[in-house]
Amino acid sequence: MIPTLLELSTSQLRALAAAAGRGAFEPPVEIALSSYCPAPLCKALGSELDQASAKGLRGELLAMFLATLANDRERRAAQALHADLVWTGPEVPVGHSRDTRIVVHELFRKARKSVLLSTYALYDGKDLFTPLYETWEQYPTMTVRLFLDVKRGDTGLLTADLLAKFRSDFRNFHWPWERLPAVYYDPRSLAPNLSERACLHAKCVIVDDRDLFLTSANLTEAAQQRNIEAGLVLASPVLAAKVRDQFLALVVSDLLARLF
User: Fold this and answer.
1) Given its phi and psi angles, is residue 236 left (phi above 0), alpha (psi -120 to 50 degrees) or beta?
2) Helices then strands, each counted (H, E), the chain
3) pTM score of the predicted model
4) What is the pLDDT along the chain (260 residues), one digit of tens a residue?
5) So where are the chain's domains?
6) CATH code assigned to 83-258
C-alpha cells in the first residue's frame, strides 16, 4: 500500500507512471520525485516507494501499478457523473425519462445563486417563468440571465423597431413582473443581409453553476409538452462552468448585446 499516492491528481499519477517506465525511480527516489509531485509529499512518497521497491514493485511493474490506479480513478469519476434523460413526446410503455417542463420548473425552484437560460423560441413564457420569478423573490441576490433569439422575419421593420417590439412582447407575454432579468441577444440575427444573419439556437439551463440541462426543446408549449424532444440534465460544476463561460465570453466580447 502506498497511501500518499491517493493525495496526487490523476495527471500526476500518469506522469509518475511514465517516469517509472523510464526507470527514473531507483532508490532513494525522494529527489527524483520533486519534478512529479508537490514538495510536501515528496519525503513520504519517497519513503513509501523505497519500501515498495524493496518488495519488487519497481520499473515497469511500478509503472503498470500507477497507470492502473489512474485508470481506475478516471473510471470511477466517469461513473459518478450521472445524467438523466429528459424527454418530451408521446407516452411509451418503456421509458426511463423525465418530462421537459417538469425538469425546467424543478431547476428554477432549486436555484439559490444564479440561473442562466438560453432558448431559440419563446412562447407564452409567463407560465414557464413563474417558478423562476417566485424563487428570485425568495432569493433576491440571485443572478438571472436570459439569452434569447430576436428574429428579423419579413416584417420590413427597422432594427430599432424590431428591438422595441421584442421588448414590448417580452414584457406583455413572457415577463410581466417589475424586476427584470438581464436579457441578451445576438445582433447578427437582425442583419439585413440574409447571408450575414445568424440565430441564437442554443437551448440550455444552468442553475447555481452546478446543474446543467442541455436540450433540443425550445421554451414553447409545443416543445415542452407535445413535440418529440430529448435532453440531458446532470450535476456537473465543471461542465456547467464551461457552458456558462462560453455565454459570458460572448457578452464580454460584445458579440452578444443586452436588451434589458
Assistant:
1) beta
2) 9, 9
3) 0.69
4) 688 888 888 888 888 888 888 888 777 777 778 777 877 888 888 888 888 888 888 888 989 999 998 888 877 766 666 788 888 877 666 555 678 888 999 999 999 999 999 999 888 889 999 999 999 999 999 999 999 999 987 777 788 999 999 999 999 999 999 999 999 999 999 998 888 999 999 999 999 999 999 999 887 766 666 788 899 999 988 889 889 999 999 999 999 999 99
5) 3-78, 83-258
6) 3.30.870.10
